[in-house]
Amino acid sequence: MAEKARVLSVEVLEELRAALVLFRQDASAALSSVALVIERAYVWLEQQERFWKQEIRKREEAVSEARLELQRRKMMEILDRPADTTEQEKALRRAQARLEEAERKLRAVKAWLVQWPRAVNEYRPIGQRLADFVDVEMLQLLAWMQGRIQALEAYLTAQPPAVASETPTAVPTLAEASPAPEH
Fold first, then answer.
1. Number of domains in the chain
2. Is residue 163 one of the residues assigned to a domain?
């Protein structure tokens, strides 16, 4: 026994399709953004490496200058007593701490530069699968859905066959309905 199709609302399918179209657009935009972020992050890491190398040179010079200033101050004598070198010692410690900070930051940047290609290589196949899904399979799904929506709309607008009237009409006999055999 055949069951009747019970279509209540094609609009819900159209809303779902519209939501999928928006999802596809958002997913494509997100994938493009991720690609740009990946590229920018690598460029930024390279810039940071150059910056911290320059900073180390500057800070090494600052340590050397602080060390020289401390040595000069130690050579001075005021009233047969050694000069107070507290400020120069503090300046040297600050310069050394700033140099150590720059060296730590350079090591961190170099570690990221080593890790970055691996992280990107882990992401690429997953990102590519999602891109393929969005670019190919989603388009196929949307086209398929559009066809189903159109078929359902056509089904809903189709007129049911005319119901037989109350008065019976003449029904052809089997002999009348079958064609005559050819000789």
1. 1
2. no
User: 3-class DSSP state for residue 2?
Assistant: coil
| In the predicted structure, residue 76 carries a pLDDT above the cut 80 | yes
- How far is the C-alpha of 134 from the C-alpha of 14, rounded, in Å? 19
Q: What is the CATH number of the domain that holds 14?
A: 1.10.287
Better pLDDT: 80 or 62: 62
Q: Does residue 102 fall inside a structural domain?
A: yes
Partnered with residue 78 across adjacent β-strands are 81
Distances in whole angstroms, Cα of residue 159 to Cα of each of 27, 120, 153, 154, 163: 41, 58, 12, 10, 11
Task: Residue 124: name the closest of 23, 63, 39 by CA.
Answer: 39
174 falls within a domain: no
Q: Which of 98, 92, 93 is nearest to 66 (CA)?
A: 92
Average pLDDT, the chain: 86
pTM for this structure? 0.63
